[in-house]
Amino acid sequence: MLKSRKTYALIIVLMLSLVVAAGCGGGEAPSNDESANGANADKAINIKIGHVLAPTHPYQTGLEEFAKLVEEKTEGQVTVDVFHSSQLGNEREMIEALQMGTLDMALVSTAPLAGFSNEFLVFDLPFIFDNRDNAYKVLDGEIGSGILSTLESKGIKGLGYWENGFRNVTNSQRPVIHPEDMQGLKIRTMENKIHMASFRTIGADPTAMAFGELFTALQQQTVDAQENPLPIIFTSNFFEVQDNLAMTGHFYAAAPMLISKQLWDGFSPEIQNAIQEAATEARDFERETVASMDSELLGTLKDKGMQVTEVDKAEWREAMQPVYEEFEKEIGADVIQKVLDAQK
Ligand code: EAX
């Protein structure tokens, strides 16, 4: 009798724990499919967006503005969480994750994107843009949107071009004024063959590396030099490991805002319009922030002990000109001419 009671009790306990386990099981975060279709109206759809820069960089403050606008314009149906400092992967990894639909959104530079769609290469030619207004004219026009749309067949939707900025060379070895001063300097570049060719052309020794590894590589002197806009040199504390700053402005880095096409296609047109509107308004906010930081930071970086040199941009443009010949066939001479003509 006693034995059957014990067995009976055991069976009840077992059944109960199975029911409990079934109740909590699902544990998985709601999948994109579920959130994309907005399975139920009162459950907000949460989007995660990643970038590789510091929490004080305009990428972050711009994306926080974007998040605020998305929530407002969708009346809380969509919320956005922003992840800085490569928490969701480096730029190439995030682009791959967007294609697979395992990441919702990312803000990256055009440079690594050229590895996924050749058409982006034209934007990374040295000195292709004279100033940021000309860059906006091309990027926000037919040429820019045409090139962004080449990502759609690769599973990614582009929502416009934010700004990283005009890139300048820093190094730990010596002041740089002329291109030949770069001779033999080991320089980190982004993962982009035009960036590497441009520095090889002036005698430097380029190494492609993800942004997240850069500060340590500079600190340990695995590389002597790097190149980035002033807002990154400041917000990523490169002035702590680089003494010299040459105002070369050799590349203009645009930063496309990207969303996984799988997620985008699952949204209603109303939600799509709201997100696109927010992306454009926050873009202008972010561009203004970068432009004002750019004009203010030179003094700050000098105060941080950096030795700043001005250079003759025409001399550097000429020294890097062979890169145009080297990639003309791959990019298309007509494409390069179209971008140059669009700035006239
Ligand atoms: O897009 O890697 C870089 O130097 C870039 O400026 C950075 O990834 C931001």
UniProtKB/TrEMBL annotation:
Keywords: Signal, Transport. GO terms for biological process: transmembrane transport. InterPro entries: DctP_fam, TRAP_DctP, TRAP_DctP_sf. Its main location: other. The keyword Transport applies. GO terms for cellular component: outer membrane-bounded periplasmic space. It comes from Metallumcola ferriviriculae. Residues 1-22 form the signal peptide. This is TRAP transporter substrate-binding protein. Belongs to the bacterial solute-binding protein 7 family. It is found in: Cell envelope. It comes from the Bacteria.
